[in-house]
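**User:** My hope is that you can spare some time for a protein that puzzles me. I have put the entry right below:
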Amino acid sequence: MPERLFVCTPSKLGTYADCPRRYRYTYVDRPSPQKGPPWAHNSLGASVHTALKNWYALPTARRDTAALPTLLKATWVREGYRDVDQERVAYRKSLEWLDTYVAGLDPEEEPLGVERVVATKTGVLAFNGRADRIDSRAGEAVIVDYKTGRSGLDADDARGSQALALYAYAAQRVFRRPCRRVELHHLPSGTVAAHEHTEESLARQITRAEDTAHDIMAAEKAVAAGADPDAEFPTNPGTLCGWCDFRRTCPAGVDVQGKEPWAAVEHLERVG
């Protein structure tokens, strides 16, 4: 019998790469351990992403900055913030980022896809993922990923992103056109980090993803055969433990000082 394909998203592969134990808690254990409270930075990111998606859903005549306050207010996620004052600061900053970003967009330009699901198969993977935006430029598809985190990004971040490479690989097959360029649009700084893939570099990222899938399937098969789940899905202690949804469950995280749900947005209160 042929080996079954590993059904995955970039998030699923990335979770295992970060920490096999967190992968187990998320995708294997049923019922899954209880998660911690929602994160404010996730709420902010989701709000901005949805506002941009809905901006592109407007008629071209209404695609301007004047539409943004209504769009952001309608999509705003309130979970995770310390208090109403912090939430208001985050909302105001998000609106400023969107205003600057949208001012640089051509409202007449229709992307190939917005929040578009692309899917493909390899000999190992059945991959699907939702790209923030896929542009059409000079007959090629371009992957655009929005970022709202504190840190700026550079070309190495775009080059090393497995998620962007998988989106590009899948988009080539979905749209039947080349897709080599991937871009990270960092809204807080207004910068774009880009990388031009080659067929060889995309192939390397696919191989890397397939290697991860093989590791996951081997661990899941071993557990199903009676192996110790803790041994097959080990912890990966490090700086991410403080941000982990399962810190209170995991033996590697239980003694780690956890981050407050609003920790990643506190800096917004200190900037002008």
